[in-house]
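Dissemination and training. As part of the outreach component of the grant, students in the summer workshop were shown how a complex can be specified as a set of sequence lines and then modelled as a single object. The example used during the hands-on session is reproduced here so that future cohorts can follow it. Participants entered these lines:
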Amino acid sequence: MNILIIGANSAIARATARLMAARGETLYLMGRNSERLQELVNDVEVRGATISGSQVLDLGDPDTIKGTLQDAVNALGSLDAVLICHGSLPDQSQCEADYQAAKQAINVNGLSVIALLTELAPIMSTQGSGTIAVVTSVAGDRGRQPNFVYGAAKAMVSTYLEGLRGKLLKSGVHVIDIRPGLVDSPMTAHMEKGPLWAMPEQVAIRIVQAIDKQQHTVYTPGYWRLIMAIVKSIPAVIFKRLKF
Amino acid sequence: MEISGWGQYPRHTATIIEPPSAGDVQTALRQSADLPLITRGRGKSYGDSSLANSVLSSRLLDNYISLDQNNLKLQCGAGITLGSILELIVPLGAFLPVLPGTRHVSAGGALAADIHGKNHHGKGSFSDHVDSFRLCLANGEIKQCSRTRNKKLFAATCGGMGLTGIVLDMTLKLLPIGNDQINNRTVVSKNLDESLALLAEHSSSEYVVSWIDCLAKGDALGRGVVFVGEHATGQESGKTGRPPGLSIPVPFHTPGLLLNRYSMSLFNNTYYGLHNKSQPDQQVHYERYFFPLDRIQSWNRLYGRRGFLQYQLVLPLPAAKEGIRQILERVADAGKGSFLAVLKQFGPGNDNYLSFPCEGITLTLDFKKEASVFGLLEELDKIVLAHQGRLYLAKDARMTAETFKACYPNWEEFLAVKQQVDPDNRFASLQSDRLGLTPARNTRS
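and obtained this result:
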């Protein structure tokens, strides 16, 4: 398979790239930090991947994304799967105090993904096949007090993906929404860990599986589907009083 | 966060720093508070060598850098485990020349403890197969170390328990193999003389190790089972990846009292009885051969919440037999045996200042942590020192500074190198404080 991974330096993407490398897939990697990107290129090559290229890409500004995928598409030839994995966890209270901070968080976690999908959709549609998998979050399922800016950005992407899935159905392109729960990664290094936390490697296994099986919305680990079903069922009159 | 070594004694509250890549180690070192710091791989050393107020985890430095299949050289990050390296290289017909008893050890940890395996008599220890490594010093400077570049730093870091700096990555030499199987032969011995004779007799075989019934007394003292292994030849057989077979979890601490002199005795007798007839040679998958205990996840919990102490000593050859006999007698008398008593013959040691192996016989015992064990171990220390032996730092949680300095005659040369690269003793573990290698700046908990 020819696979494009965007946000490749994220812990989840790194783990997924390694699994795909072990299967001998062909990868094109895009990430922000060039040193870490090169490190990953070397790593997955040793693990068995063929690298068709890599590119440094900063997704902080959605307005600059147009055209940036062309090199990757040319290098890979065809896109069997695209994994969009980048994101950053903003400081919620800072976002509430300062619109610029909220805007930045929504740019990185929300609009930049939509900008990428806008680039990808026609390419994939013309190609008439392939899978787009996007890592969103369980945080997008409900606006919770501690991180509703991040949650709003992720919800935006999830809603967009749902629509896009239908739109691309006839062209044979499949869309997957991957919603991880709490993942122990450098992005969450500052947070206290508990029993619900998962490792990026677990999430990666589910991503590969979801692409293989052409699933639609994947909660990972699986127990988050149940947890979020319960959370979603809480009426607003109670939910507004919850601080979790 | 409260952490401990594999023996679960002692426990210590530490601040954990986890740099996401080698490039972030310097920054992490610069930004972390001026606390005594030690690098921790997968936390598989038994005692307090990876405990300090501030702990830098190498977990995420688990990337490969290059693999040269023609010359059998692998360059990898310090945080990658030996088990995952094997998963990569075995299907390519290569193996790691030195392996410990668990697949979960990191390459950095293996280097820092200069670990040995069942083939020490033929292949030496881990660092003997390390071409070079990159070391991040206390001041953030990165040094390339090998036998020709920064030689002293190389010799101090291999076996140096993380006290010279942070190993970022290394280049390993690999061993060519035909397939993933090991031919295993089992030979029963009736007493210590026989066990030692069998170990010596098979010293031309690749892997030789003996399990000892450490509760047997009198004429049966030192009886056991000797396992002799060779890599199977031929490229076809058994290229099957990981072995099928169940892995048994130990999800919680069992009450420590389940392991007492009666249950230990029962176990030792049964285990000896099971092997007490000649068995045909058999082929086993390398994982089953090298890492049998990995099939019981968290087996350390069997010793209960208070944990256990592992005690590994080596005695130089001429006096070894007599010393081992005295130690086994003392342990059998105390009735404090372990179910993991292992005997093995080492080949010559290397030039590293603090590497454990030297030509002689090594014995490994473990003991449930209880107050009375410390006195017994003090007595054993005396027997070890009287026979010019030494104790393994990767297992140790309790030896005194005096014992350490008597065991490791090159400690002053080690310290001279450390003081050159780490004058402020930025790198210090609970163990190095205890052994008098660093001023005791770590708080005790």
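The CA atoms of residues 62 and 112 of chain A lie 4 Å apart. Students were then asked to discuss how this feature might be tested experimentally.
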